[in-house]
Structures are given as C-alpha cells and as structure tokens.
Specification:
This protein has 12 helices and 26 strands. The chain is an alpha/beta fold and 407 residues long. It binds flavin-adenine dinucleotide.
C-alpha cells in the first residue's frame, strides 16, 4: 500500500516522535492524531520540575508548534477520546460518535495515575500530577507557608516536595513503604535522598498507610494507620501509574500483559496495530523478560522503531532503559533496571553529593544510579548494554578511572 491511512491514538511524547520520524523518513500516507487532552503533544517531565516551579512557560513544555503538524500534513483531533476499535472494518470510534477509517493504527495512550480509594479520597484540594491541567489546578495552592502533604515518595512525590520547599511551603511526605523510592533504588540511595529532603526541611513518614483523608468538603488532614494525623491545606498524590488504553485494546481483542503487549517491532497481536510508549509492555532482550517502562526514552525509542516498521525497515527495539529525576540541585540519572540485583557497589562518597550506585546480578552489571556524576551514568549505561562484569572492589575505588574498570 503506497499511502496507508494512519491513525495515532494518544497525543503525547511517543506520538510526537512517531510523526517526526515518519515524515522525516518519507512516510506519505495521511496521518490523523487523536488526543483526549486539549493540548498538542507535550513533555511531562517539567510538570514536576521547572514548569511546576514556574521557571518555564507552556511554550517550553509543548513539544512542537502547531505549524509542525500543519507542515507535516497531520490532522489533529484534540479533545477527542478514542472509545472503540473495530478491527474487522478498520474503524476507530471516537467519543463524539465519529468513525475514522484506518489502514494502520498506533496506540500511544500513555498512563493514568493510580488514585486513592480511602475514605475522603474525593474531597477537594486533593490533586494528582499527570498533565498540564493538573499543574494549573495545583499552582494556586503552592503559596509560601501553606501546608502540603505529599502522598507517595516515588520520583514524582519527591520532585514535588523539592519544588514546594523551594517555594516556601511546609511539606510532609507520607509513604507506605519502609523507605523512599523503594521500588526503584537501593537502601543506600533511599537513605541519601531521605537525608537530603530532611535537611531541606521536609518531614518524611515512611512505613505508614494512609487510612483516610479528613475534612468537610475540602481536605484538612491525612489520617495515618498508626494513628497520626497530618494537617494539610493541600494534598498531592503520587502513588504510581497504570497503563492507559488497555481496556480499549482488550475490548478489541488485542493481547495485553501488564500493558498492551507488543513485540520488539512494536506490533500488537494484530500486526496492523502497533503500540508505543508507557501503555505497552515489550520483550527486553537485555533482561530476558517483558518490561513496561514509564520513561521519555522508551516513548521516543519505541516511536522510532514503529516509524521504521511502518516504512518497511525493521529495527528491533532493545535499548538500555534510562531515566532521570531532578530534586533540589541534584541530578539523579538512572540506567538499566535493578530488579533482581544481589550486590550494590557505591562509588564515591554520598556526603559529597556526587556518587553512584552500581547494581550487579551474578556479577553482571544490570543498573546504575548516578547522583551528579554524568560520566558514571554514561559509562555505566554503555557497560550494561555490553553485559559487563566489573570487579566490585575496583568499582568501589574512585581513584581507578571507571573506563578502565568497565572496558
Ligand atoms: C509529572 C511527571 C514527571 C515525569 N518525569 C519524567 C522524567 O524525569 N524522566 C522521564 O524519562 N520520564 C518522566 N515522566 C514520564 C514520561 O513523561 C512518560 O513516560 C512519557 O510521557 C510517556 O509518553 P507516552 O507518549 O507513552 O504517553 P503520554 O505522554 O502520557 O501521552 C499519552 C496521551 O494519550 C492520551 N490518551 C489516553 N487514552 C486516550 C484515548 N482513548 N483517546 C485519546 N487520547 C488518549 C492521554 O491523555 C495522553 O495525552 C514523567 C511523567 C510525569 C507525569
């Protein structure tokens, strides 16, 4: 087919990259982009960093100007939600009732926030952070002296805490797990970040469940299972995300497995339908099992693979995953996935606020967390892809150049 009609569902990071790669590489078919938000694709990382702080405006958050889509000949259907896929007729139904025909379909539906379900979860002044509209709703509450309770000490919760402290709020972080960022880092990293936040004046309570949000109409306090009560003027919840678009895919009979299941070429169980970004799980050749990643890199990488596939130039997706988090003046860079590690080697002294944690499994380097040490992150990422087996004793010695250890 010379000019297949392509529809992309979900106007986010992955969709923007897909369009850019397709048009740059000569895809000539008509493209329609359906997005339920009112905005053209934008980047989310600044929403818990510079944009939340007010340091940058919307123009720096939106990925491409409207003229890009005009010039690329892409029809934007924003403020529209895709509600059903008819695979036999190759039709996509929108919430407006409209039906759009396609030859190829790409699902790029991202993630949705996990919501509280405890008593009081629906009071006002409780916010989540996923989109521009969330930031706009939160901003008026970020005033010096206000009491903020952050529920969840993952990346987003801690980034919000750092921004809010910078703006002069009284911040308490509440976490059910025994330590901050437990899902993603080693205890040494958690202790370091916890100490940094406490030093900045953030109160942190780990190992305690939220039992209820108290208040009449608006949230006034968080009641914890251990009996404590944390008074708050505003509550921001960051307790994880779930892949979006799974119900849409499942209803169409597409295989799902912790997200929309795709292969290394981003094909779903129906090869005419691809899926990319947060909404997918894909086979990681590096780690030998399926993974679902929540990162800009994955959205961009899978989008490039999908574009290549749509153009008949298959290039299987198999990158070393990477991610970052900015908290205060700290840049945390993460390469690889540390699940299943049996040894952590620290390189550098956390007291200097520039150090790295290397994760090994059976002697093989599987992940690196680097704080303010970009070279450790860069070299570590490369070595993970090469399945390096560094000597742990040498790795721990910052006087031996890392390139000598990892090469
Ligand atoms: C606050 C915040 C901070 C982050 N910080 C970082 C970071 O520092 N580093 C990093 O690597 N990653 C970070 N991320 C994650 C990163 O932004 C995501 O991994 C990335 O946006 C995923 O891109 P995507 O295109 O798959 O999904 P998204 O960018 O989420 O886009 C999906 C779009 O699809 C729309 N949609 C869903 N269902 C439908 C439907 N049925 N019909 C129409 N439209 C639909 C959604 O509304 C959304 O607009 C952060 C995310 C957030 C929220």
């Amino acid at each position: 087919m010379k000019r297949p009609r392509l529809i992309i569902v979900g106007a986010g990071q992955a969709a923007a990259q897909l369009i850019a790669s397709l048009r740059a590489d000569g895809f000539e078919g008509p493209v329609t982009l359906v997005g339920e938000e009112a905005y053209p694709p934008y980047q989310r990382p600044p929403l818990s960093k510079a944009f939340l702080k007010g340091e940058i405006g919307l123009d720096r958050v939106i990925l491409k100007a409207d003229s890009f889509y005009e010039e690329a000949g892409v029809e934007l259907r924003l403020g529209r939600r895709a509600v059903a896929i008819d695979r036999d007729r190759r039709m996509l139904r929108l919430d407006s009732g409209e039906r759009l025909g396609f030859d190829r379909l790409v699902l790029a539906t991202g993630s949705r926030v996990r919501r509280l379900s405890c008593p009081g979860h629906d009071l006002s002044n409780i916010f989540y952070l996923r989109g521009i509209d969330d930031v706009e709703a939160i901003r008026p509450h970020l005033v010096a002296g206000a009491r903020l309770a952050v529920i969840g000490a993952g990346y987003i919760g801690l980034e919000v805490a750092a921004v809010a402290r910078g703006l002069g709020l009284e911040v308490t972080v509440l976490e059910a797990a025994p330590r901050v960022m437990m899902r993603v880092t080693a205890p040494q990293m958690s202790s370091f970040f916890e100490a940094v936040h406490r030093e900045a004046g953030v109160r942190i309570a780990c190992g305690t469940m939220v039992e209820a949000i108290e208040g009449a109409g608006r949230a006034e306090a968080v009641r914890l299972a251990d009996g404590r009560r944390v008074e708050a003027d505003v509550i921001i919840v960051g307790i994880g995300i779930v892949p979006a678009g799974v119900a849409l895919a499942e209803a169409a009979g597409l295989a799902c497995d912790n997200g929309i299941a795709v292969d290394a070429l981003t094909r779903t169980s129906d090869p005419r339908i691809l899926a990319i970004g947060d909404c997918t799980s894909h086979p990681s050749l590096l780690y030998g099992h399926r993974v679902r990643l929540e990162s800009v890199q994955n959205a961009i990488g899978q989008a490039k693979t999908a574009a290549a596939h749509l153009l008949g130039r298959d290039q299987p997706y198999d990158e070393v995953p990477w991610f970052w988090s900015d908290q205060y003046a700290l840049k945390l860079q993460i390469a690889g996935l540390n699940a299943g590690y049996d040894r952590v080697v620290l390189r550098g002294d956390p007291a200097t606020r520039a150090f790295a944690a290397f994760y090994l499994s059976g002697g093989v380097l599987i992940a690196v967390d680097a704080v303010n040490r970009p070279p450790d992150y860069m070299l570590g990422r490369k070595a993970i892809g090469e399945r390096a087996r560094p000597d742990p004793e040498r790795l721990a010695d910052p006087d031996i150049p890392l390139k000598d250890i990892l090469s």
